[in-house]
TrEMBL record:
Keywords: Bromodomain. The lineage of its organism: Eukaryota, Metazoa, Chordata, Craniata, Vertebrata. Residues 100-116 have a biased composition (Basic and acidic residues). Gene3D superfamilies: Bromodomain-like. InterPro entries: Bromodomain, Bromodomain-like_sf. Residues 92-116 are annotated as: Disordered. The keyword Hydrolase does not apply. Transmembrane segments: none annotated. This is Bromo domain-containing protein. GO terms for cellular component: NuA4 histone acetyltransferase complex. Residues 1-63 form the Bromo domain.
Protein backbone atom coordinates (compact mmCIF):
# COMPACT_ATOMS: atom_id res chain seq x y z
CA UNK A 1 0.00 0.00 0.00
CA UNK A 2 1.58 3.29 -0.99
CA UNK A 3 0.90 6.53 0.77
CA UNK A 4 -0.26 9.57 -1.17
CA UNK A 5 2.58 12.00 -1.76
CA UNK A 6 2.75 15.04 0.51
CA UNK A 7 1.05 18.18 -0.78
CA UNK A 8 3.42 20.44 -2.71
CA UNK A 9 3.72 24.24 -2.54
CA UNK A 10 2.71 24.43 -6.21
CA UNK A 11 -0.61 22.70 -5.51
CA UNK A 12 -1.33 24.45 -2.21
CA UNK A 13 0.76 27.54 -1.44
CA UNK A 14 1.54 27.94 2.27
CA UNK A 15 0.12 24.52 3.10
CA UNK A 16 3.20 23.23 4.93
CA UNK A 17 3.34 26.23 7.23
CA UNK A 18 -0.28 25.57 8.23
CA UNK A 19 -0.35 21.75 7.93
CA UNK A 20 3.12 20.51 8.92
CA UNK A 21 1.98 16.88 9.08
CA UNK A 22 0.84 14.30 6.52
CA UNK A 23 0.37 10.52 6.41
CA UNK A 24 3.73 9.90 4.75
CA UNK A 25 5.50 11.86 7.51
CA UNK A 26 3.59 9.98 10.20
CA UNK A 27 4.54 6.64 8.58
CA UNK A 28 8.19 7.71 8.35
CA UNK A 29 8.16 8.84 12.00
CA UNK A 30 6.75 5.46 13.08
CA UNK A 31 9.39 3.59 11.07
CA UNK A 32 12.18 5.81 12.48
CA UNK A 33 10.96 5.40 16.06
CA UNK A 34 9.94 9.04 16.48
CA UNK A 35 6.37 7.88 17.12
CA UNK A 36 6.43 5.02 19.63
CA UNK A 37 3.19 5.30 21.56
CA UNK A 38 -0.49 5.53 20.81
CA UNK A 39 -0.52 9.01 22.37
CA UNK A 40 2.27 10.20 20.04
CA UNK A 41 0.45 8.75 17.04
CA UNK A 42 -2.82 10.35 18.13
CA UNK A 43 -1.10 13.72 18.61
CA UNK A 44 0.31 13.74 15.07
CA UNK A 45 -2.76 12.35 13.30
CA UNK A 46 -5.03 14.84 15.09
CA UNK A 47 -2.63 17.66 14.17
CA UNK A 48 -2.93 16.62 10.54
CA UNK A 49 -6.74 16.57 10.66
CA UNK A 50 -7.09 19.82 12.58
CA UNK A 51 -4.69 21.63 10.30
CA UNK A 52 -6.43 20.27 7.19
CA UNK A 53 -9.71 21.66 8.54
CA UNK A 54 -8.05 25.02 9.25
CA UNK A 55 -6.42 25.19 5.81
CA UNK A 56 -9.47 24.18 3.75
CA UNK A 57 -12.69 26.16 3.62
CA UNK A 58 -16.03 24.81 4.80
CA UNK A 59 -17.20 24.30 1.20
CA UNK A 60 -14.18 22.13 0.28
CA UNK A 61 -14.45 18.32 0.19
CA UNK A 62 -11.15 17.95 2.07
CA UNK A 63 -12.61 19.90 5.01
CA UNK A 64 -15.47 17.42 5.39
CA UNK A 65 -13.31 14.35 4.68
CA UNK A 66 -10.83 15.46 7.35
CA UNK A 67 -13.61 15.80 9.94
CA UNK A 68 -15.06 12.41 9.02
CA UNK A 69 -11.67 10.72 9.08
CA UNK A 70 -10.86 12.38 12.41
CA UNK A 71 -14.04 10.94 13.95
CA UNK A 72 -13.28 7.49 12.52
CA UNK A 73 -9.67 7.53 13.68
CA UNK A 74 -10.61 8.71 17.19
CA UNK A 75 -13.13 5.88 17.40
CA UNK A 76 -10.51 3.34 16.28
CA UNK A 77 -7.94 4.68 18.76
CA UNK A 78 -10.49 4.49 21.59
CA UNK A 79 -11.35 0.90 20.64
CA UNK A 80 -7.66 0.02 20.51
CA UNK A 81 -7.01 1.59 23.92
CA UNK A 82 -10.02 -0.20 25.42
CA UNK A 83 -8.81 -3.53 24.02
CA UNK A 84 -5.30 -2.83 25.28
CA UNK A 85 -6.67 -2.09 28.77
CA UNK A 86 -8.72 -5.29 28.76
CA UNK A 87 -5.65 -7.29 27.71
CA UNK A 88 -3.47 -5.70 30.40
CA UNK A 89 -6.15 -6.26 33.03
CA UNK A 90 -6.61 -9.83 31.87
CA UNK A 91 -2.86 -10.50 31.94
CA UNK A 92 -2.45 -8.98 35.40
CA UNK A 93 -5.46 -10.98 36.60
CA UNK A 94 -3.90 -14.19 35.33
CA UNK A 95 -0.60 -13.26 36.96
CA UNK A 96 -2.28 -12.48 40.27
CA UNK A 97 -4.30 -15.72 40.17
CA UNK A 98 -1.19 -17.65 39.25
CA UNK A 99 0.75 -16.08 42.10
CA UNK A 100 -2.09 -16.71 44.54
CA UNK A 101 -2.21 -20.32 43.37
CA UNK A 102 1.52 -20.71 43.94
CA UNK A 103 1.21 -19.03 47.33
CA UNK A 104 -1.53 -21.48 48.36
CA UNK A 105 0.62 -24.38 47.19
CA UNK A 106 3.60 -23.07 49.19
CA UNK A 107 1.45 -22.65 52.28
CA UNK A 108 0.10 -26.17 51.84
CA UNK A 109 3.64 -27.53 51.36
CA UNK A 110 4.87 -25.80 54.52
CA UNK A 111 1.80 -27.02 56.44
CA UNK A 112 2.42 -30.55 55.18
CA UNK A 113 6.05 -30.35 56.31
CA UNK A 114 5.05 -29.19 59.79
CA UNK A 115 2.39 -31.87 60.13
CA UNK A 116 4.54 -34.76 58.88
Amino acid sequence: CSWPPPVTEEIAPGYHSIVPMDLATIKKNIENGLIRTTAEFQRDIMLMFQNAVMYNSLDHDVYHMALEMQRDVLEQIQQFLATQLIMETSESGISAKSLRGRESTRKQDSTDKVLH
